[in-house]
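Quick start: what a row looks like.
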Amino acid sequence: MAARDATPGHDLTVSVVVPTFRRPELLALTLASLKAQTHTNFQALICDNAAQAATEKVVADLADDRFTYLARETNLGMHRNAIDGFRRADGDLVFKLDDDDILDPTCFETLRQPFTERQDVTLTFSGTRLIDLHGDVLVPQTQAWAETTGVAGLGQGYVKPFTTLAARGSIQLCAALVKRSAVDWDVFPEQTATAYDLHISLQAARDEAAAWYTPQQLVSYRMHPGSDSANKLAAQLTGGAFTLQHALDSGRYEDTAAIEAALWEHQLRRGREFLRDGQADQARIALRKAWSLRRERQSGVLLGLSYLPNGPRHRVLAARKARYVDPTRVNAH
């Protein structure tokens, strides 16, 4: 069935994409929070990567025809599993629900409302609370998360354009409803990899579109050793750098300065990570790109380090690391 566009005047359908990989116990909690939504007009697609019977049973036990189980016979990889789910979605709005997160009951009801009020809204998002494996709220980490992502001082309301928020990673896809027609789901560069959330946010921000934000924490994002947020930083930064460059090259944004600033930061951090891993050649490529964007001291120093032999380079990096993390140096004069 062809989906209607997200326009005022009809009950908006939410397509929920739930990528999952061998977390049946947590998935059961996640889907229970989805089933409890006060906005009931949704269809969920549970994309089971390297499918197993335990996951299929979790979905079957819901006995709810709004939930569809999709078995992946092989491991597609995290981002390919999710992207295929997005492409199958046919609702007015799209939501990506991680298989270990918890939604507040009014999440969809709150986030869908701005789409009924303004035609130029392509994305709505909320605050996020961080929880541990047992569901306890991590208060200091939640506050730090809000400050790091740049939403700590952001009030409820519309933001137009929202390129800056998208480029700097302020929008967490786990807490965002996206207008399906605002994203080219069939043209999804493979190089975005695990940074597909950034790609989706930037696509939604094209052509000076509007977003809506509420600081209400409508999603609980679970932090634990198995979370992607704790792993694979270099790969995430590489995907992010490609995504930002892809957006910049599209010519669909007036505020290119925000994208360029984010791209510089990604390349700088990529270079630093590659240096720490002993990959001087890869570091040099990233740092040259950072230097071409901004000729700042950080880029120049790290670029210079990339040309040193392994031994001296490692000693300098170790000294720099000690300077910044050794608490005995904090009050040294």
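That is the whole record. The CA atoms of residues 204 and 296 lie 31 Å apart. Confidence is low (pLDDT under 50) at residues 1-9, 226-231, 323-333.
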